[in-house]
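Action item from last meeting closed. Structure (153 res):
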């Protein structure tokens, strides 16, 4: 695939997620949630999760900001729903490696689903925070969740 074709694919996938966001809805105050913002761009995301027996059963997000921040949040939900928490944390780690231009093996890229198109963001360092915001939030939520799981043992 040429770089030009890759850019076309990137634009189509990003625009599709930005215009038809998956798992975007109003988050209720009673839900387990975490909100963060990216002050350099004004992006704001609030993400909620539900887990059962160490698996992620639901991820929802709400917020506003640039196309990349919103598309990346939508992609993240699709990539991580129904994953085991440990697997999800490893996928998040690979996403952060990929987006900062580090080498990630093909099977790990495959696990990222649509989010793999964001690899091109490594060329735009000023926008990386837009693309990683949702992934930082879910990472903190999941690590907290694991703490709770082990705390009960
Ligand atoms: Zn942004």
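Sequence:
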């Amino acid at each position: 695939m040429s770089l030009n074709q890759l850019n076309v694919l990137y634009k189509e996938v990003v625009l599709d997620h930005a215009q038809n966001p998956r798992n975007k809805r109003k988050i209720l105050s009673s839900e387990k949630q975490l909100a963060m913002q990216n002050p350099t761009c004004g992006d704001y995301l609030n993400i909620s999760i539900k887990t059962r027996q160490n698996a992620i059963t639901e991820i929802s997000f709400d917020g506003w900001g640039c196309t990349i921040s919103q598309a990346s949040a939508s992609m993240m939900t699709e990539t991580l729903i129904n994953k085991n928490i440990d697997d999800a944390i490893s996928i998040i780690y690979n996403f952060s490696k990929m987006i900062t231009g580090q080498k990630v093996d093909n099977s790990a890229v495959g696990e990222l689903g649509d989010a793999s198109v964001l690899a091109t963001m490594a060329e735009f360092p000023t926008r990386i925070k837009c693309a990683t915001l949702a992934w930082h939030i879910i990472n903190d939520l999941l690590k907290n969740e694991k703490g709770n799981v082990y705390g009960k043992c």
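Note appended to the action item: The beta strands are 33-38, 43-52, 55-64.
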